Predict the 3D structure of the following.
Amino acid sequence: MRKRSMSNLMAAALLIAGIGFLSAVSAQPTDAQIKKDLTRPKTVSVVLGKPGTREWSSTYNKYVWNMGNYHFNRLIGKVESIALSDEPGFQWHTPNSVSFNVTAVYTERTNDVGGRERRARTFEIRLYRDNPKQGWLRMMSTAREKKIL
């Protein structure tokens, strides 16, 4: 009987240790902890961006995780033009959120060995505000169609 209670005690201890380990592994670090981990003696500043979004990639035929600045980081030079798309598709989601399409013309890096393409890409822009009497406070953009020029 004592042997059985000892094995039950060991099993309970292992279970508690396992739960503690799993919660420690899956816990998200705070912004302060991330900044602390990234800061070194010569670090000037650490700026953290907003979380990304999951979106469908027609290139890879699967969902990919976007940190929202993928196309901006691949931009070569300046954006040549940006304007409402021929079909802007204005959609009011709530009185505090509207989305519409814009088309930007620019040159984008296509690989890491000098590849480049001039493109016209449609982006869906979504604006947010806290109440209808305020100005727009936040924006999110999602890349949509592309046309190689």
Residues 74 and 111 are 9 Å apart (CA to CA).
